[in-house]
Design goal:
four-stranded antiparallel β-sheet, eight-stranded mixed β-sheet, 319 residues, alpha+beta, single chain
């Protein structure tokens, strides 16, 4: 009986199988890389959107409340506010790190600027990024708290309450509120992530026996902020003028220290960037921030612009 021919695999068949295997492996690796890149991008965008939402929420709430003066109705009815030539007319105990008018310039409940350290708070603000200060009374009535700056208001009258003194107003009824002062700026470095820019907020608070300005982080990845204000110049309740930071008309004041123009809204733009890079696809494209363009560095990071127009609730607010 003859033996049957033994079947075997030739070298050519091995090479063909190896080539097919390499092609399949490459396709799988490419698909996994694309999936991984897509996942990283989605994760980065989700973090960026989360930080943008936080920043928008904080700014929106404070802008809406700016110029709320309780029963006094208007800042010109409140004693103790900064007036021309006297930033602290009642000699109040104030935080050491900021100018007095950062706290007491109640005649400008919304104040925008392109000067990084206009408040004298030694804030490490990035250049070419706007800042905004917002002043109001807290929405709730409170009990006396000597370290805090508070305002007692009655119809058509108010006074910034000196510490350790309880001044009576000639009108009744009266109510007491905490003075609320917030200043927003963009800093180059976050405390938690030194390579990340961050939106920060200066907040009037109290520490031990005196008022204190707390400098806190609001949202990471905010690279720059641009602001314009919407102004009602003819007292009809509607915006008829848009002013940018640095406009000299923002500095015009009446004799009582209140600003001449009435702000009815604020529009702002935030450039939000990712924590890490790796997505470079050529030269960075300019980002539109109102009338301005921002050219981000070509560092391979993702960026988008978050913007919002916020209308001020209090019709008596002046710039």
């Amino acid at each position: 009986m003859s033996l049957g021919r033994q079947a075997g695999i030739t070298l050519i068949e091995i090479m063909i199988a190896l080539g097919i295997g390499i092609a399949i492996t490459g396709t799988i690796a490419q698909a996994l890389a694309l999936t991984s890149d897509g996942y990283r991008r989605s994760e980065a965008l989700a973090f960026m959107q989360e930080q943008a939402d936080v920043a928008l929420r904080f700014l929106t709430e404070d802008i809406r409340m700016a110029g709320h003066w309780g029963l006094a109705g208007s800042a010109e009815n409140i004693e103790g506010r900064s007036i021309p030539g006297d930033a602290n007319p009642l000699g109040l105990m104030l935080p050491r790190r900021c100018h007095a008018d950062f706290i007491l310039d109640l005649g400008a409940p919304v104040l925008v600027s392109d000067a990084p350290d206009i408040w004298g708070c030694s804030a490490n603000a990035v250049p070419l990024s706007d800042v905004i200060a917002l002043r109001s009374l807290g929405p709730n009535t409170v009990e006396p708290d000597s370290p805090r700056l508070q305002v007692i208001t009655a119809p058509g009258h108010g006074i910034v309450q000196p510490q350790h003194r309880d001044l009576a107003l000639p009108h009744r009824p009266s109510q007491r509120h905490n003075l609320v002062v917030h200043g927003y700026y963009v800093a180059a470095r976050s405390t938690l992530f030194p390579d990340q820019p961050v939106l920060r907020r200066m907040t009037l608070s109290s520490l031990s026996s005196r008022p204190y300005v707390l400098d806190e982080e609001v949202a990471q990845g905010i690279e720059t902020m641009q602001i314009v204000v919407l102004v009602d110049s003819d007292a009809d309740g509607a915006a008829d003028m848009t002013l940018e930071t640095g406009d000299p008309r923002l500095e015009r004041r009446d004799e009582d220290g209140t600003t001449e123009l009435m702000v009815v809204g604020v529009r702002f733009w935030l450039v939000v960037r990712s924590k890490t890079g790796g997505w470079s696809r050529g030269p960075a494209r300019p980002l539109a921030l109102g009338r301005h363009s921002y050219i981000p560095p070509d560092d391979g990071r993702l960026r988008f612009v978050a913007s919002q127009t916020v209308w001020v609730r209090n019709s008596s607010v002046r710039l």
